[in-house]
Design a protein that fits this description.
This protein has 220 residues and is an alpha+beta fold. The chain is built from seven helices and four strands. The chain has helices at 76-97, 103-115, 123-132, 138-148, 151-166, 173-185, 190-202, and strands at 5-21, 26-41, 44-59, 65-66. A four-stranded antiparallel β-sheet has the order 1-2-3-4, with no helix packed on it. Strand 3 (44-59) and strand 4 (65-66) form a beta hairpin. The longest helix is centred in the middle third of the chain and has 22 residues, at 76-97. The protein starts with a strand and ends in an 18-residue tail after the last helix. Bound molecules: zinc ion. Residues 21, 23-24, 28, 59, 61-62, 64 line the site of zinc ion (ZN).
Length: 220
């Protein structure tokens, strides 16, 4: 009788979860597979041979296979959540560095939180956030964004935070310090930050006192 034997690579599922699929360009579910060569007899796998061939991440939607490192990238959902959290911590720090009771500054902070995706954010949330603020968390929230945000995203983040400080007048030294902390955590140089601040303050604003709507310098 003729024996047909050989080997074949088999994938065994070891974990599942959600990841950002680079091929789909979206959050998808994945299966983490361990690859191993098996001895086959009449095309039926009998036993594993040799060492493990490593692992691969398989997208359940497009079927694409990726190296396990792909799981290190945050999902879109996680990233958005980080962004919202970071904006709130940065906004609150800026608010506290100035006058947290100033109506225009509070309005700018609410606006910044909404633009970062927290659509229902209002003054009640702001009161809670102010009470819960721990400024030492800024770097922890912002550092993950340094990789995920592009240059434009970082600049617009800085602009939003600066807008809160500028809502009640020119930036004070403590407000400038918050801006420097935020900027450094995002990986922007001091010169870059100065450039952003100059471009915001140079934009048309009522020269007497910044009583105008805080949106004035954001749209161009
Ligand atoms: Zn995919």
């Amino acid at each position: 009788m003729l024996l047909i034997f050989g080997t074949r690579v088999r994938a065994t599922a070891v974990a599942t979860g959600e990841f950002f699929c680079p091929r789909c360009g979206a959050d998808r579910s994945y299966v983490l597979q361990r690859l191993r060569r098996w001895f086959t007899l009449f095309f039926i796998p009998f036993f594993p041979v040799g060492k493990s061939l490593g692992e691969q991440v398989k997208c359940s939607t497009c079927g694409g296979a990726f190296r396990p490192e792909v799981l290190n990238a945050p999902t879109t959902a996680t990233f958005s959540e980080n962004l919202r959290g970071a904006m709130r911590v940065a906004s609150m720090s800026m608010l506290v560095a100035g006058d947290p009771n100033n109506a225009a500054a509070r309005l700018a902070a609410v606006d910044a939180a909404r633009k970062s995706g927290a659509e229902n954010y209002d003054d009640t949330w702001l009161v809670h956030d102010l009470a819960a603020l721990d400024s030492s968390q800024i770097a922890g929230y912002l550092t993950p964004l340094a990789q995920g945000l592009n240059e434009q995203g970082k600049e617009s983040f800085i602009e939003q935070v600066a807008g809160i400080g500028l809502a009640d007048g020119p930036l004070t030294p403590p407000e400038t310090q918050v801006l420097e902390t935020v900027s450094a955590a995002l990986g922007l140089s001091a010169a870059h930050l100065r450039g952003i601040v100059v471009s915001i303050t140079a934009a048309p604003q009522s020269p007497a006192n910044g009583d105008g709507p805080p949106d004035e310098y954001r749209h161009n």
